[in-house]
Amino acid sequence: DLKLQFLYFIVLLIKKTMSITLILAAVALSLSTRCQKEADRWCRSDTRCMNIIGTSNITAVRSGTRWFCGNEACDRTVELTEFLDSCEASDAEFVEVFTPFEGGYPCIRIPAVIQMPQVNRIVAFAECRNWTGDGCIPTPPAGWNITTNSNRDLCSKYSEDGGKTWSGLKTIFRASQQPTPVYSARYNMAILQFVNRTDNLVYQSTSVDGIVWTVPQNINLPSSQVGPGPGLQLNDGSLVFIGHNGDYSYDSVWFGGLDPHQYILSKNSTQTLLGMNEASITQLPSGKLLANMRTRNACHCRGISISQDGGATWSPVTFDEVLIDPVNQGSIVTNIDEAVLFANSASSTSRVNGTLYIGSEVGQTGNVKWNNAITVWKGAFAYSCLTTLGVSHTVGLLWETNGPQCESTSDASCRTVYSHLTY
């Protein structure tokens, strides 16, 4: 009898375990409407599947634990499972802005974005590259010959519906890189600084609509790789930019106005911001400026410096160990609700786990306490750029990730997408 009771108990245990397993499997197979939409979009970007199936209006279809784009002729179980794991663990919806081979450019990298409220446009910028590599190695279409030169141009798109749809790609400047735009309310226009590859100097152009740009002018400062990311307009209307010199040699800051010939180089930034690289600056509620910088420090985190005089002088670099970083670019802004927002790949080892940090200035010290964080995207996440939108608890983010033509997380800069984030 005891043996029978024991066997009966074992059978009940097995049945219960199987039931739990089935329930968990059902949960694992369930998919939110948002992620189904993103999976459909993923499939429609996969040119290999479109070539097989012969239509661009394909959707992601699940059969058991397998995933297909359109039908079983295009099995994408491995790729879509990884993609959807990231989607379900993330908070952001996104819209594709720059994709591989668009406009004849195999790679489009280094995103920057601003809002131009007077014309109701969000304007996105990037380097349109004639070559592959540097985090972007897409699978080429049939018959495509990829060059090995390092030519690149500055390209742009704009959106007039809050980032839901985007214009066609436009090349605005040839042989240029490192787009660093800012919207100036004082001058009611966009100012774009970038590096001209012909002489490796920083140039400036302006636009009243974000579409047509003036002839660029040299700002007449020592060679520096401006940005990339957003420039900064201070409360008094003056403009501030930060750039890096050499490979983790030092950063420099310059400030001025609309006249490209009147920028002033910071008195001590080139001696103080040593060992730093790509950087972004914001003005805190107290009026102090905060520089947030890429570094190779052993902390695997961000370098920080504060200016109390509008960018003229800077404090010695300290390190914010909350903001872990895999040696990557990041972006920082202060919103109208006085929230300090920072975006980067929150990992000490890889360009993954895109995160939006929400912080506040501690008193008027220039120090920031990070109160909360939102996972934008669990998977591949490389360069990014934040833009304020004139709305509390809302921010725009343009960011690099992988995609159907380059699925590895090592190809974290293969395509660029835009997210409208709330916090």
- Most strands sheet: 5 strands, antiparallel
**How big is the Rg?**
24 Å
The residue ranges in which pLDDT falls below 50 over 5 or more consecutive positions are 13-29
The coarse overall form would be: globular
> Helical amount among residues, as a percent range?
10-25%
Average residue pLDDT: 89
Alpha-beta content class: mainly beta
Please give the alpha-carbon distance between the first and last residues: 62 Å
β-strand number: 27
β-strand percent reads 35-45%
Total helical segments: 5
Structural features, described:
This protein has helices at 2-29, 33-44, 47-53, 77-88, 269-272; strands at 60-63, 66-69, 95-98, 107-116, 121-129, 152-159, 170-173, 176-184, 189-196, 201-207, 217-218, 225-226, 232-233, 239-245, 250-256, 264-265, 276-283, 289-295, 301-307, 318-324, 331-334, 340-345, 352-361, 368-380, 384-388, 394-401, 415-422. With 423 residues, it is mostly beta strands. Strands 12, 13, 14, 15 and 16 form a 5-stranded antiparallel β-sheet that branches. The protein has a 4-stranded antiparallel β-sheet with strand order 3-27-26-25, with no helix packed on it. Strand 18 (289-295) and strand 19 form a beta hairpin. Helix 2 (33-44) runs antiparallel to helix 4 (77-88). Residues 13-29 have low confidence and may be disordered.
Looking at this protein, list some descriptive labels.
423 residues, mainly beta, 27 strands, 15% helix
Helix-strand layout with pairing:
Elements: H1 2-29, H2 33-44, H3 47-53, E1 60-63, E2 66-69, H4 77-88, E3 95-98, E4 107-116, E5 121-129, E6 152-159, E7 170-173, E8 176-184, E9 189-196, E10 201-207, E11 217-218, E12 225-226, E13 232-233, E14 239-245, E15 250-256, E16 264-265, H5 269-272, E17 276-283, E18 289-295, E19 301-307, E20 318-324, E21 331-334, E22 340-345, E23 352-361, E24 368-380, E25 384-388, E26 394-401, E27 415-422
